[in-house]
Prior knowledge:
Chain A has 350 residues and is of the alpha/beta class.
Amino acid sequence: MKGRLILENGMTFEGECFGYLRDSIGEVVFNTGMTGYQEILTDPSYYGQIVVMTYPLIGNYGINYDDIQSKNVKVKGFVVRETCHSPSNWRNEISFDSYLKEEKIIGIKGLDTRYLTKVISSEGALRGIITTGDFTYNDVKRLLMTNPTLNAVKSVTTKKVERIAGYGKHVVIIDLGIKSNIIKSFRDRGFSITIMPAFSSYDEIMDLKPDCVFLSNGPGDPKELTDVINTVKKLIGKIPVTGICLGHQIIALACGADTEKMKYGHRGSNHPVKNLKTQRVTITSQNHGYVIIENTLPDDFEITHVNMNDFTVEGIKNDAKKLMSVQFHPEASPGPGESSYIFDEFITLM
Amino acid sequence: MPLNKEIKKVLVLGSGPIIIGQAAEFDYSGTQACRALKEEGIETVLVNSNPATIMTDKEVADKVYIEPLTVEFIEKIIQKEKPDAILPGMGGQTSLNLVVDLYDLGILLKNNVKIIGTPVEAIKVGEDREKFRLLMNEMGQPVVRSEIVHSMEEGLNAAELMGYPVIARPAFTLGGSGGGIADTKEELIIILSKGLNLSLNRQVLIEKSIKGWKEIEYEVMRDAKGTCISVCNMENIDPVGVHTGDSIVTAPSQTLSDKEYQMLRTASLDIIDRIGIEGGCNVQFALDPYSFEYIVIEINPRVSRSSALASKATGYPIAKVATKIALGYYLDEIENSVTKKTMACFEPVLDYVVVKIPKWPFDKLQTDIRQLGTQMAATGEVMAIGSNFEAALLKAIRSLENTQYTLWSQKHVKMSIVELKEKMDKPSDELLFITAELLRRGYSVAKVNEVTKIDNFFINKILNIVENEELLKRMRLEDLNYDWLKKIKKMGFSDKGISQLMSCEPDAVFNRRIQLGIVPSYKMVDTCSGEFEAVSPYYYSTYEDMDEVTVSDREKIIVIGSGPIRIGQGVEFDYCCVHCVFALKELGIETIIINNNPETVSTDFDISDRLYFEPLTEEDVYSIILKEKPKGVILQFGGQTAIKLAAFIDKMGINIFGTTSRHIDIAENREKFDKMLEKINIKRPRGKGVWSIEAGKKAAMEIGYPVLVRPSYVLGGQGMEITYNETELVNYLQSAFSKDSKNPVLIDQYMLGKEIEVDAISDGENILIPGIMEHLEKAGIHSGDSISIYPPITISDDIINQIVETTSKIARELSIKGIINIQFVEYEGQLYIIEVNPRSSRTVPFVSKVTHVPMVKLAVRAMMGHKLKDMGYGEGLYRTINKTIVKVPVFSSQKISGIEVSLGPEMKSTGEVLGIGNTFIEALYKGFLSAGIRFPDKSKYILATLKPEDKNRFMPIAKRFTDKGYQLACTPGTHSALKEYGIESFLVNKIGEDNNILQMIQSGKVSIVLNTPTKANDSRRDGFIIRRKAVENGVDLFTSLETVDALLRVMESDIEEKNIDVFESQEVFK
């Protein structure tokens, strides 16, 4: 069915809608990964966002239920050049189109995704609507003023406490929208794990007597999460605190640093990050639209990792306070796995 | 770490002549390496025996040695130049093997030459299969079950243990020569006997076949600090079993989920980190299509054909970055030349699909065996970029210049399903079209997959094209509305393809399309999928919305490239195109290159102001012309590929610089050409164009046998033969007219004279002849296949004067502006013209290099209206040198099963080398050495079997061999002739008898085979079988007595390697 993507700057892209045909508004961002669409679809950090895939052929290997990163699709919409009608892979269970239908998510295909990407990279992330209706820009202008990522963490965090037994140290994961491979990475290392809702209180957390608190990745502006930041403030100094992505930003904010929204963020599987200790650069998986402002970081922090494209902060550490976090995704899924050592470094804090 | 300041002078080794498995990609990588070194202010010394390369230009390297790539000669150059370091990884396997030898022999240590880039120990792990296997086992990386064997017995035992099918891969050879898959013991015996002979250290790997698994490659890089990146991954459409050089390849992989992609990527990085690569490396995997199981097939610790493809597919200059790493830089210190902002330590992401299709020589070399296997057969390749797979595939198909514009192949339409099924069973160059035809008839996708093991993803893509082709067949022009036409244009269909399917004129589709306003838009290859601003002027066409090309208002000219490397059209034409661009740039003109060959320098995005990576068809070229509105186009340097476009471009009213299409036609049209020669009173062998067998017989009678026969409009002497009697002639004509009844067959008097070749530059009035070349072999052997000598040694001043005068007349008559190539034959004291090519020829780089006349540059100036008298090189015949230079052709015959290997009018060589000497003998010595022709071993036989006409000429030659202490072995006819002459020889039996000639060749007791053919191209004849046996067993074969005479002259001289000088190219003129 014919449809359109209308952006808040008034640009309209025509294409063909697929998946579940229900109009959807979100912040339009692009991801440059050439593989990993199903991990992207189900990554809670994309909550409220319409994701444009820059690689033109999507759905080639279908969908399997092993590689998804949360129980359901989190993106608000998916924009692709072309979908694959006859996926081929030994693990394929359902086609990409059928999966989106099942998950009630709209997609749009057949548009010039490179053009769209160039627009986003020059103007920054823009809100947009995927619609099958006859709306003009003026009809949807007001709709596009709303913030699609408001209360995002609240929407994606777990509702109940979940425990995973293990033989190792006890880590409490504050679920801000966690990807399942982060949990798996802890589990593979033998941790005993408790996953708690994002807005759990200091006492609720400390009652579990964890050896470490881990703040997960998640969607939206970290500064909106004042309750979480306050809880983390109390935790710091009492117990080692680690984090990835949004969690990393929360730790910085809790220590008095500031964050800002990036023009169009980092989303893809090819971001070079330098480990300042080893001086080696590794290619990392990334998905974030906010970043720590480097010069607001308190003096007792050490910057451990730097992005080699724009030199933004990718990792911080505070030995005295036992804090450590990274902006990129060491759990990969999708993307390169070379940074999984970060999980082992987390252990050294405990 | 920044630049290592201790390195001031670096030695770079090229890869030698173009052969199958080692082609233009190493000119590209070597040139890029030299330019990167220059950028750092480092003096470069380059050694390569191949003159037809850009890397051997004085503009590219500071010191250029066109000398044999042997340990002895490299040592001489090292002693003379005293470089601080040597960069091994840029010249393919040849360079890598040489550096390992130089290192092992202590020559590098003795002369204080450091190896930079990947250390020798790491190179050895990649090269030595046993070391590699041990390391993989240690790392827990799976490798295929295999065993290294050194004898037939060991090999058969190993195969018995692991079970057939098995693959045999000889170690230390190029392009997998001598390898193959054996389904049975009998097959293994044949493959193994070849393999053991071809391997430099008689080492062959026998491994369990994993046929049918997916073949995936990663191009990865590592710096000295251990930062590792993957530049590109590629998926072979053909499963494991077909050499990757013979596979249709797509980048990035299409059927791998992120898990599989990352699993193999991680394995690649772990391997290069463990081995300690410093530079680029290729890692090949086989992946089970039904599990996560994989095996590491091999690694190549150097730049390669795949890395050239990866560089062009992504825009990431692997050779350049590898060179900088070798100089001490880390990946995060090297600039990404595409964005100029980010660094080289990132992984390129593609927002398009790349398809590579090999260019096979089967159309040129008549052979019934078109089967593909582990031994590479392709001479070159084309690459195409599309916004979807179908578009990339269709663009690549039409880039091949096989007259196919669709998947609808007339040859296969005629076949029954049973025939097609049979053909599908074995991989061949036609598999794509066979599959398409089967799917067209409704054959099941699942069954195609079961038989071919091609992934269903790709089969369904082929099916999608076929289905749309079928729809088009049922449509009429009026049915092509905007949406439909836009849809199929997006899918990559060409106007011509559409017109063929709809049975209408291509113009009609073109007009319809323009009427509907459907034109291509061009997108940039930028390494980052649009994430960052990029400055790379590298484009491909799509039918999407946004066009990223902003056309400048500068004066601009389009240079048409030469497409894939093939026999008869090699890297020489790329050399010319690149120099054309340089010359235009010097004149302040904006340059645009259109080409589709990923291996070449011309498709490096920083050569021209703008690069369009596109097919070289009328439509694709014209679309770019419409977009860029150039002042004109230059076709002269792109070989036949470009010249073919002349009439069309002219018709469209576009200015062609240089010779006009009317004059090109005169040169190529037999009758017009004869008329012109008559007018200016120049002789040529008597000849006629005929359209029927009867007319042919009559013409031949008039001319007198033997006659030279060939189709009109050919390159590289394709289909050309000498026929000695009417039966042969009729056979030829029958087959020629059944292939093509529209064009005449040309019948010429065959003159067994001396062949002379001239390349000249003309400004329309005057000419400059940089040099005249004399051919060693008699006329009748294709000029590309004969040894040529500069300056000539047996041509009289009178003939030389006639040559200059005639060349001048012809150039003026054809209003040549630019380069003209003329072939003469001197017969009984008279000069005749054989052929005129109004374009750059394959000898231009050779002549430019040996005379130091920048031919292309002068030709471009002439095209732009400058006069020769103002160019500083004079007019007429240019001054000569006091050294002698020979060009020796190099063949790849052992790589392609079942092809004729004897010299004849049809070109068969794939490359060439130069020998530069103070004397003719010295030059020949070096030429033979560079071409890999060994001087015969006295402990072995010289095996001779000759046609009756040659027996008398052979007697003195035989005598010279026995005088030198060689033993001859002959078949009965030659044996008794020799006996009469008083020369003893060992009698060998004919084929079919016991202890016959073939067994003798296979036994390893023969050092060279001399065979003059009675009739070429007939695989049933004994001579043919003997010749094949020789090349397949790595025994040197000579089919022309002139070449043997030359070899003897070198052997008879007292020439000694240690007394021979090496010449830097500037010194040649002192």
